[in-house]
Amino acid sequence: MEDYTLKKTNPVFKWITTIFLLFWALVNLFPIYFMFTFSLKSNDEIFGKNIIGLPKQWLFSNYATALNTGNMGLYFFNSLLVTTLAIAISIMAAMMACYAITRIKWKMSKLTNAFFMLGLTIPIQASIVPVYVVLSKLHWLNKYSTLIIPYAAFALSMAILICSGFMSEIPYDLDEAARIDGCGLFRTFFRIILPLMKPAISTVGVYSYLQCWNEFMFANVFISDSNHRTLPVGIKALSGQHTTEWGPIGAALVIATFPTLIVYIALSRKIQASFIAGAVKG
Questions:
Q1: Which domains, and CATH codes, for the chain?
Q2: Alpha carbon distance, N-terminus to C-terminus of the chain
C-alpha cells in the first residue's frame, strides 16, 4: 500500500499554489506600483482620495522637475561613477589579494587573510569619525575619491571571502603548467586565474553594487558640495528644499530605484547562478 502524497499534479494543490503565488507577487509588486504612480501625481491626489489608484492626470513634468530643479541627473551620474569605480577597485584588489593568499606559499598568508577578515566585524557607522579625519588630512573631502576609496575598502573583506572560496577550487596544476610554459606571476594571474573567476566577479560585483549605490551615511557626512552628491543624499536634499512638491520626490525615488530593478531583471539568471556557485564552492 503506497502512502498518499500531495503532488503537483493534484488540481487542488495547483490552485492553492497559484493563488498564493499571485497574492505574494502582488504584495511584492505593490511598492513598485505605488512608487511609480506616486511620482506622477499632484499633491491633491497624493493626500486626497486617490492615494492608491492610477493618476487622474499623469504629471510626467514631475520627472523634468526632479532632473532639472533637483539635479537628479547630476546625482545619478555621480552615483554611477562612484559605484562603478569602487566596484572595479574592490574586485581587482580582492582578486590579487586572494591570489597572494591562496596560490602563493609564504609564512604570513594565513595571518594576512585573518587581518582582512577583521573588516567584516567593523560596522561602517563606527568608522565615520576616523575615516573623516583621514580624508580631511589628505584633503580628499568633496571629491569623487572621497567615496570611491572608502566604498572599495569596506567591500574588500567580503570580496576576499567570496573570491577565496572560488580560487581555492582552481587546481594548482594550472599554475604549474603555466610556469612550465614560461608564465610569471602576473601573466599566470591575468591569463589563467582571472578568466576562471567570472562567477566570483559577478557575485562580488552585485554585492558591491548594492552596498555602494544605496549608501547614505558616508555620502551625507563626507560630501557637502552639491556637485559631488550621490542619489541618496540628493533625494534627501530635494525633500528638504521642495517639501510642498511630493511628486518630484517620487520621481527622484523612481530614478534611483528602477535602474537597479532593470539591471537585476536583465541579469537575474546570471546573478542567481553566481550566488549558488559561491555558496557551493565557499
A1: 11-61 (no CATH), 64-281 (1.10.3720.10)
A2: 43
